[in-house]
Amino acid sequence: MRKHVVAAALCVIACRGRVHHGIDAGPTDAAIDALSPVTGDPPANATKLVISRDGAPAMAAVIFQDADMNVVSAVLTNEQGVAWAVMPAGGFVTAIEHVGSGTDELTTFAAVEQAETLTLALGNAGPQVYTPLSVTVPADSNASGYQLYSSCGGPAGVAPGVFTDVQLVGCGTLANLLVVSLDANADPQSTLYAPDTALPTGPLATDATSYPTLSIAGAYGGFATATFTYVGVPSMVSYVETYQAIADARGRVFDRTAGAAPSGGGANVTITMPAVTAPTLTATTGYTTSEIGQQIIYEERAAGAGAYSLDLAAAMLPAYNTPPAYDAAARAVTWSERPAAVTADVVRTRLSMYRDDIPAGRAWTWRMIAPRSATRVVYPQLPSFGFDFTPSGTDTIVIDELTTASVPGGYAAVRADGFGDLTHAVMSAPGRMVVELLAPPQL
Description:
about 450 residues, mainly beta, disordered N terminus, globular, Immunoglobulin-like
């Protein structure tokens, strides 16, 4: 069954593998406990790591190493979830968080810059800023209902001439809004696009009677069918799927997905979208039945960019030729690739490990983001804190993630928040990002 991978891939695989042994609860490693929180204010040339879990500052050990893996500093984050050190460019920054039940989560940023601020958001996103509003919209002739879409939430039912309570999440002061009127069959009929809408500001509403009001104005327009033309479709691709969204740096407002089987090295996909002038995000996936990985081409296009066409073969990254393997002697994840037109500049990996021990086993995960320079990525040798986190040949090791990517601005553009949503690298301005995943993410 075809997987609709786009929505899950927008944050690019975060699932972990399974370990098949029992894990007994154990205390946090004593040597890590003995580390002290960083104190004082960081100097201007310090490299900083800001860590949160579920939206709140998190305590974790942070190891700063130079490019030769010499330890520059080993500290705990402070009350603000911040750790820092003055270190040369090109080194490693690794966070170690003990999450209980004999389990640790490690995250490494490679090739960091001096005076760079890195961010690591663990767990859920945490508390969001809610914007409660009472909204009314213009009437559209013969409409049976109305839906409000926005760059920060929706859809929500609204009505003309009546203020309806809605909750938007994480908007800020401006939002892109789209009203879709529905016909007698509850199918989309017309649209009204209101970009850059200023949202009411003031004290946070405590109940519906005090929600600030917003009247959306404008004229309704129709829908239009866009054709996505693909040439150079590789022979192993059996289905081309296209995802399109009205989207910019604020977020996605409205989206649709469609696909077609290629013929003669080409494919045409049609999608019906609101006929509005707005930036769009397009994601193209070529499905195969025999490939090891899954490749997705994201493209942010300016408003009014015109018809979409893409030479698929000329836009693709090297596909994985063999499954990845872990070389314990070299501390490296290795793989092989087939030739392709585009070169990746980012690689992200994630390992899940389990080590049998007496009286209790221990499990940990270790993910890393690094510049992609070869078909291997080497993990740093960490100092031992009473436990050697470097996977050995006797450990159970599962490679959960291998992601390579070509992004606008290269590795430097995504390193600081490299474990978040990589599509932010293209949604802020027109550009193209190509991602090769180890396997399609599951919805």
